[in-house]
Automatic annotation (TrEMBL):
Ranges in coiled-coil conformation: none
Subcellular location: Cytoplasm
Key word Hydrolase present: no
Descriptive protein name: Elongation factor P
Organism per entry: Neolewinella marina
Keywords per UniProt: Cytoplasm, Elongation factor, Protein biosynthesis
Family classification: Belongs to the elongation factor P family.
Superkingdom as given in the UniProt entry: Bacteria
Function: Involved in peptide bond synthesis. Stimulates efficient translation and peptide-bond synthesis on native or reconstituted 70S ribosomes in vitro. Probably functions indirectly by altering the affinity of the ribosome for aminoacyl-tRNA, thus increasing their reactivity as acceptors for peptidyl transferase.
CDD domains: S1_EF-P_repeat_1, S1_EF-P_repeat_2
Gene this protein is translated from: efp
């Protein structure tokens, strides 16, 4: 058991029959009354983010987790297949556990968060930025740069993002995997 003094970003614990990870926390000591910890927690099974307040000294059930570097192998109808880079063990992970799976290429190394109690995968963390090649986009019209207009572009994995008009087929671009937005040309 851990108390609210152990809460920090990335801390994982069991709450309301689910496993949550702390996204953001703030210890509050008001002038009147008892101290408390205000948190934003993310469910590792559904991905929902909740705001939760715990009184100071409240006990929480800590869940021990490990991060494993894994290589994405392929996707089929059973799910996404990964291989542990150290032990060469393979694991199949369902699409619901992966945020923006369209930004993974075969051979990419990603981090998988495992529950150490039963050795089950909890979440898949993609790198914050990936560089990919644009396989198709409509050509931009010359002189149409007065506004910040975006056009759809298909990437090498089949994912679609919105890009500025000056991006052409064959360009390599940098994408933020959390929001799925264009960052820059590479």
């Amino acid at each position: 058991m851990a108390s609210t003094s152990d809460i920090k970003n990335g801390f994982t614990f069991r709450h309301n029959h689910d496993i949550y990870s702390v996204v953001e926390f703030q210890h509050v000591k008001p002038g009147k009354g008892a101290a408390f910890v205000r948190t934003k927690i993310k469910s590792l099974s559904t991905g929902r983010v909740l705001s939760e307040t715990f009184p100071s000294g409240h006990k929480v059930d800590e869940v021990r987790v490990e991060r494993h570097k894994m290589q994405f192998l392929y996707k089929d109808d059973m799910g996404y297949h990964f291989m542990n880079a150290e032990s060469y063990e393979q694991a199949t992970i369902q699409e619901a556990m992966i945020d923006n799976p369209g930004f993974m290429r075969e051979g990419d190394t990603i981090e998988v968060l495992y529950n150490t109690e039963d050795n089950t995968p909890l979440t898949v963390d993609l790198p914050q930025y990936v560089e990919m090649e644009v396989t198709y986009t409509e050509p931009g019209i010359k002189g149409d740069t007065a506004t910040n207009t975006l056009k759809p572009a298909t990437l090498e994995t089949g994912a679609e993002v919105r890009v500025p008009l000056f991006v052409n087929t064959g360009d390599k671009i940098k994408i933020d995997t959390r929001s799925g937005s264009y960052m820059s040309r590479v």
